[in-house]
Amino acid sequence: KAGVTQTPRYLIKTRGQQVTLSCSPISGHRSVSWYQQTPGQGLQFLFEYFSETQRNKGNFPGRFSGRQFSNSRSEMNVSTLELGDSALYLCASSFLGGEMGEQFFGPGTRLTVL
Amino acid sequence: AQTVTQSQPEMSVQEAETVTLSCTYDTSESDYYLFWYKQPPSRQMILVIRQEAYKQQNATENRFSVNFQKAAKSFSLKISDSQLGDAAMYFCAYRSGLTGANSKLTFGKGITLSVRP
Lengths: 114, 117
Prior knowledge:
The structure holds two protein chains of two kinds. By secondary structure, chain A is an all-beta fold. Chain A is built from no helices and eleven strands. Helices cover about 0% and strands about 50% of the residues of chain B. Chain B has no helices and twelve strands. Chain B has strands spanning about 5, 10-15, 20, 25, 35-40, 45-50, 60, 65-70, 75-80, 90-95, 105, 110-115. In chain B, a hairpin with a 2-residue loop joins strand 7 (about 60) and strand 8 (about 65-70). Chain B is globular, with a radius of gyration of 14 Å. Classes of the chains: A mainly beta, B mainly beta. At the A-B interface, strand 4, strand 5, strand 9 and strand 10 of A face strand 5, strand 6 and strand 11 of B.
């Protein structure tokens, strides 16, 4: 099976712009979670989608949003970018129902905000 | 809220030796899952080992094993016969359930492990 894929792998934006990141889960997985990783804050949970519905949300401002499509692919959007949004954004998928909730991670998208 | 603490930011081990990485967590729940993830310089998060809280037996995966002390809320990772490829950042993570509002992973700050040849 192909693993979790994320596009693009690297992105450079300027303050005030918006950005959309994409995640394709492992075939058959219905849950997609997003995490932000920064040196200062570590790994923080953004949100989780299951069957096109947001099921869980972390403590991030409304500028961070996401969605999931019928094929389980997910996108996250960050509007009005700030310097502090520079981070590695990780997507993880899981089957939910087996393997103890194991989440499989993608390679991440490195976002740099100038 | 659940918290995961990894108090050692860095550790070093000699190749072929054994090293133990510490992790403690705080939760009021009785049913949950614990994980150790490895993040090499490529930044790809890789699951190393997992433990179900209701299982008393400690999980083992080849050279990796855990010491799970539920009462003490401790979950340490032991790496035996350390190899150069084990050098990475290791994260301890907690997940309270498969479904529902608490299905997210809560991570510790991570520990950077270096392996000396």
